[in-house]
Fold this sequence. Notes:
Elements: E1 3-5, H1 11-20, E2 26-28, H2 35-38, E3 41-42, E4 44-46, H3 51-65, H4 68-74, E5 76-79, E6 83-87, E7 93-97, E8 102-105, E9 110-113, E10 116-121, E11 128-130, E12 133-137, E13 140-144, E14 151-155, E15 160-162, E16 165-168, E17 170-179, H5 184-204, H6 208-224
Antiparallel strand pairs: 1-14, 2-4, 3-7, 4-6, 5-17, 6-17, 7-15, 8-9, 10-14, 10-17, 11-16, 12-13, 12-15
Helix pairs in contact: 5-6
Amino acid sequence: MLLHIPDVLTPDEVQHAQQLLVDAPWADGRSSAGSQARAVKNNEQLQHDCDAATQIRAMLLRGLDRNATFFSAALPKRVFTPRINRYQGGSNFYGDHVDNAIRFAPDTGLRVRTDISCTLFLTDPADYDGGELAIQDTAGTQRVKLPAGHLVLYAGTSVHQVEPVTRGARLACFFWIESMVRSAEQRRLLFDLDMALLRLRQQHGETAETTALTGTYHNLLRMWADT
């Protein structure tokens, strides 16, 4: 499932994040890549323990906590500590690669299975050329370039790349989710059911039918979830 989730960060939060990144300490992004990805990775990554990274991570995690659509789609069990990257000038692309299945987060001491990959855009599309996140799936290659503050969520198993940035700079947060529901098919069924219930309540209010279907949703979640 590839899903666009708007307004994870507010405009004020986006502006604050952009200000924090003006004089932030950047490093070679290849330092965090595996051997296969390192060969095709050419970007910059914010130093993980700097003040700007810490503040932006906190804003992002608060944004995720208040976003019901994100929770419904991801059913998060663990969130790998978000990182921030930049594409510009000579450090402007990340070729085709697949994310590592397991990531170790030194700050928490936990290993996170990367069921879901996420990118939160921090630069408006008008401010740079290129830089599309190109994700391969069964419908072909999907190219994603979203407004600042918006998030794209997609399968961690996908081959994907960031296409070359030819003008300006592309700033984004990236992270992974280990879901309570490991199966992508089961997560999609639960998400579709949850969204259908939301629309039914908006149209008809709470009814005996929506109550019964809500019970079905939670019974399926009980059956499939690993907490």
